[in-house]
Design a protein that fits this description.
Blueprint (H helix, E strand, L loop, with lengths): L6 E6 L2 E6 L4 E4 L8 H4 L7 H4 L5 E11 L2 E11 L8 E9 L4 E11 L2 E8 L19 E2 L2 H6 L5
Parallel strand pairs: 3-9
Antiparallel strand pairs: 1-2, 2-3, 4-5, 5-6, 6-7, 7-8
Length: 156
Protein backbone atom coordinates (compact mmCIF):
# COMPACT_ATOMS: atom_id res chain seq x y z
CA UNK A 1 0.00 0.00 0.00
CA UNK A 2 1.27 3.44 -0.86
CA UNK A 3 2.10 6.01 1.81
CA UNK A 4 -0.06 8.33 -0.31
CA UNK A 5 -3.35 6.52 0.34
CA UNK A 6 -6.15 9.06 0.53
CA UNK A 7 -8.45 8.71 3.51
CA UNK A 8 -11.79 10.50 3.57
CA UNK A 9 -13.79 11.01 6.73
CA UNK A 10 -17.53 10.97 6.13
CA UNK A 11 -20.24 11.80 8.61
CA UNK A 12 -23.85 11.47 7.54
CA UNK A 13 -27.20 10.34 8.96
CA UNK A 14 -26.02 6.70 8.94
CA UNK A 15 -22.91 7.35 11.05
CA UNK A 16 -19.23 8.22 10.88
CA UNK A 17 -16.97 6.43 8.39
CA UNK A 18 -13.42 6.39 7.05
CA UNK A 19 -13.01 5.60 3.35
CA UNK A 20 -9.78 4.54 1.61
CA UNK A 21 -10.57 5.94 -1.82
CA UNK A 22 -7.70 4.25 -3.69
CA UNK A 23 -8.75 0.85 -2.35
CA UNK A 24 -12.52 1.41 -2.49
CA UNK A 25 -12.81 0.24 1.12
CA UNK A 26 -14.47 1.75 4.17
CA UNK A 27 -15.07 1.09 7.82
CA UNK A 28 -17.69 2.29 10.28
CA UNK A 29 -16.43 4.39 13.19
CA UNK A 30 -19.90 4.87 14.67
CA UNK A 31 -19.89 1.70 16.72
CA UNK A 32 -17.71 1.43 19.86
CA UNK A 33 -14.33 -0.21 19.48
CA UNK A 34 -11.27 -1.18 21.46
CA UNK A 35 -9.08 0.63 18.92
CA UNK A 36 -7.81 3.94 20.27
CA UNK A 37 -6.56 6.95 18.32
CA UNK A 38 -2.85 6.25 18.91
CA UNK A 39 -3.24 2.81 17.30
CA UNK A 40 -4.85 4.16 14.14
CA UNK A 41 -1.72 5.89 12.79
CA UNK A 42 -3.87 8.60 11.28
CA UNK A 43 -2.88 12.26 11.10
CA UNK A 44 -3.90 14.34 14.08
CA UNK A 45 -7.26 16.08 13.71
CA UNK A 46 -7.32 19.74 12.66
CA UNK A 47 -8.00 20.65 16.29
CA UNK A 48 -4.38 19.61 16.91
CA UNK A 49 -3.42 23.01 15.54
CA UNK A 50 -5.29 24.70 18.38
CA UNK A 51 -3.12 22.97 20.95
CA UNK A 52 0.03 24.48 19.43
CA UNK A 53 -0.74 27.76 21.19
CA UNK A 54 -0.25 25.95 24.51
CA UNK A 55 3.41 25.32 23.73
CA UNK A 56 6.01 27.98 23.09
CA UNK A 57 5.03 29.17 19.65
CA UNK A 58 5.75 32.05 17.33
CA UNK A 59 3.60 32.93 14.35
CA UNK A 60 4.93 34.33 11.13
CA UNK A 61 2.64 35.78 8.46
CA UNK A 62 4.09 34.65 5.12
CA UNK A 63 1.64 36.69 3.07
CA UNK A 64 -1.05 35.91 0.55
CA UNK A 65 -0.80 32.91 -1.75
CA UNK A 66 -3.01 31.70 -4.59
CA UNK A 67 -4.10 28.10 -3.85
CA UNK A 68 -6.97 26.10 -5.32
CA UNK A 69 -8.38 29.12 -7.16
CA UNK A 70 -8.48 31.26 -4.02
CA UNK A 71 -6.32 33.84 -2.32
CA UNK A 72 -5.35 32.52 1.09
CA UNK A 73 -3.03 33.76 3.82
CA UNK A 74 -0.12 31.50 4.76
CA UNK A 75 1.35 31.31 8.26
CA UNK A 76 4.31 29.48 9.75
CA UNK A 77 3.92 28.33 13.34
CA UNK A 78 7.31 27.64 14.91
CA UNK A 79 6.88 25.61 18.06
CA UNK A 80 8.88 23.57 20.49
CA UNK A 81 8.17 19.88 20.16
CA UNK A 82 6.18 18.84 23.20
CA UNK A 83 4.98 15.42 22.12
CA UNK A 84 6.61 12.28 23.59
CA UNK A 85 9.61 11.11 21.58
CA UNK A 86 10.03 14.34 19.65
CA UNK A 87 12.96 16.70 20.01
CA UNK A 88 13.93 20.24 19.11
CA UNK A 89 11.73 22.65 17.23
CA UNK A 90 9.49 22.10 14.26
CA UNK A 91 7.32 24.15 11.95
CA UNK A 92 3.73 23.86 10.92
CA UNK A 93 2.40 25.71 7.90
CA UNK A 94 -1.24 26.82 7.92
CA UNK A 95 -3.22 28.37 5.07
CA UNK A 96 -6.27 30.41 6.12
CA UNK A 97 -9.15 31.13 3.76
CA UNK A 98 -10.14 34.55 5.00
CA UNK A 99 -13.49 34.40 3.18
CA UNK A 100 -14.44 31.21 5.05
CA UNK A 101 -12.61 32.31 8.19
CA UNK A 102 -10.97 28.93 8.70
CA UNK A 103 -7.84 26.93 7.87
CA UNK A 104 -8.04 25.06 4.58
CA UNK A 105 -4.59 23.43 4.66
CA UNK A 106 -2.02 22.47 7.27
CA UNK A 107 1.35 20.72 6.88
CA UNK A 108 3.56 19.41 9.67
CA UNK A 109 6.22 16.82 10.34
CA UNK A 110 5.86 14.18 13.05
CA UNK A 111 8.08 11.38 14.27
CA UNK A 112 6.55 7.96 14.90
CA UNK A 113 8.77 5.09 15.92
CA UNK A 114 11.83 6.98 14.66
CA UNK A 115 10.31 7.64 11.21
CA UNK A 116 9.69 11.22 10.05
CA UNK A 117 6.35 11.70 8.34
CA UNK A 118 4.90 14.71 6.62
CA UNK A 119 1.21 15.12 7.32
CA UNK A 120 -1.08 17.27 5.20
CA UNK A 121 -4.70 18.08 6.00
CA UNK A 122 -6.43 19.98 3.23
CA UNK A 123 -9.92 21.07 2.29
CA UNK A 124 -10.39 21.33 -1.49
CA UNK A 125 -13.18 22.00 -3.93
CA UNK A 126 -15.24 23.76 -1.28
CA UNK A 127 -18.78 24.37 -2.44
CA UNK A 128 -21.89 25.45 -0.64
CA UNK A 129 -24.23 23.97 -3.29
CA UNK A 130 -23.70 20.22 -3.20
CA UNK A 131 -25.72 17.18 -4.19
CA UNK A 132 -26.97 14.99 -1.34
CA UNK A 133 -25.33 11.96 -3.03
CA UNK A 134 -21.88 13.33 -2.19
CA UNK A 135 -22.47 12.31 1.41
CA UNK A 136 -23.21 8.68 0.62
CA UNK A 137 -20.71 5.84 0.47
CA UNK A 138 -20.23 4.83 -3.19
CA UNK A 139 -21.96 1.55 -4.03
CA UNK A 140 -18.72 -0.02 -5.34
CA UNK A 141 -16.91 0.43 -1.99
CA UNK A 142 -16.55 -2.65 0.22
CA UNK A 143 -17.16 -2.43 3.96
CA UNK A 144 -14.58 -4.17 6.14
CA UNK A 145 -14.05 -4.36 9.88
CA UNK A 146 -12.19 -1.61 11.67
CA UNK A 147 -9.28 -3.85 12.74
CA UNK A 148 -8.78 -5.08 9.16
CA UNK A 149 -9.06 -1.53 7.78
CA UNK A 150 -6.42 -0.06 10.09
CA UNK A 151 -4.28 -3.17 9.86
CA UNK A 152 -3.64 -2.23 6.24
CA UNK A 153 -1.99 1.03 7.36
CA UNK A 154 0.23 -0.17 10.19
CA UNK A 155 3.91 -0.23 9.36
CA UNK A 156 3.64 2.38 6.56
Amino acid sequence: MSDQTRLVYLENEQGFFVLATDLKLYTDLSVGSSVNGSELLLPPPPTHLLSLAMIEATYEDLGTEYRNNKNVRKYRVNHSAASPGSQGRSSTFVWIDEQLGMPIRAEWMTTQEGVMRKTVNELRDISFNVEAGLFEIPSDYRRIGRDEFYGRFRGH
